[in-house]
Specification:
Strand order of the largest sheet: 4-5-6-1-7-8
CATH class: Alpha Beta
Distance between the termini: 34 Å
Shape: globular
CATH architecture: 3-Layer(aba) Sandwich
Strand content: 15-25%
Largest sheet: 6 strands, mixed
CATH topology: Rossmann fold
Number of strands: 10
Number of domains: 1
Helix content: 25-40%
Number of helices: 9
Length: 246
């Protein structure tokens, strides 16, 4: 996927949602942000420092990523996998920060409701449970920037809501790709809308996710409505194929 000129700044503590149709370049952009792909032009900076001028270890101490593709053949327990998040902070092979590492791992397991499976192997878990294990490992990494590639995939409604609540509560800068525009508008402070590698809009969800922009990006007819539920207004998008008479 070729990404055209895409430029944005995200303040600390904000949540950026990257949205767009399949093949828009969302995953490619995320890979640039967590230093999997090197940009051919331009830079990716944290606090003004180009991540490609930093060591891999230094970047790993600042950036954590949770991807869609989750391994299932780890011969490790859930606790062991979450503990891998501490690796960038250790000095030397097998070194540990002792009780602090244990406390951070316990916190991550508790936060993602994984204590009851902490001694099981990853391959015995459901897709949703594996996703939560990877989020917990990222939390244990104590990053400043957390990148989530479709974090609600494979999760039931309860755990989707829990992950979204987690995104809201974490004192981190977060960049996440999401398919659901309602979820993106609800949980994200900024939205980057892209199509075919091109930026359609960047800014506040209510500004970027307009009927016109969504219709153009997804090649559908989009309608935005406000529904009153318990005296709270919710923004809902109804998408119809262009040309539909319904």
């Amino acid at each position: 996927m070729l990404l055209y000129q895409t430029s944005f700044e995200l303040e600390a503590g904000r949540v950026l949602g990257i949205v767009g149709p399949n093949g828009a370049g969302k995953t490619t952009l995320l890979r640039l942000l967590y230093r999997f792909h090197r940009p051919t032009t331009g830079t990716v900076c944290i606090d003004g420092k180009d991540i490609w001028n930093l060591s891999a270890r230094s970047v790993a101490q600042q950036v954590a990523a949770v991807l869609q593709e989750q391994p299932s053949d780890f011969a490790l327990t859930v606790r062991d996998i979450v503990a891998l998040g501490r690796t960038p902070h250790r000095r030397g092979v097998g070194a540990s920060n002792g009780s602090r590492d244990l406390d951070i791992v316990d916190y991550a397991l508790n936060r993602l409701d994984l204590n009851h499976v902490s001694n099981r192997h990853l391959g015995t878990l459901s897709g949703g449970e594996r996703q939560r294990v990877m989020v917990a490992r990222a939390l244990a990494q104590e990053p400043r920037l957390l990148i989530l590639d479709e974090p609600t995939n494979h999760l039931d409604i309860r755990h989707q809501l829990e992950v979204l609540e987690l995104i809201r509560d974490l004192p981190l800068t977060i960049v996440t790709s999401l398919h659901d525009l309602n979820l993106a508008a609800d949980v994200c402070t900024e939205i980057l809308l892209i199509r075919s590698g091109k930026t359609i809009g960047f800014g506040h969800p209510s500004d970027v996710l307009s009927e016109t922009a969504v219709s153009n990006a997804f090649q559908v007819t989009a309608r935005r409505e406000r529904l009153s539920v318990s005296n709270i207004n919710h923004l809902t998008y109804h998408l119809k194929n262009k040309g539909s008479q319904k």
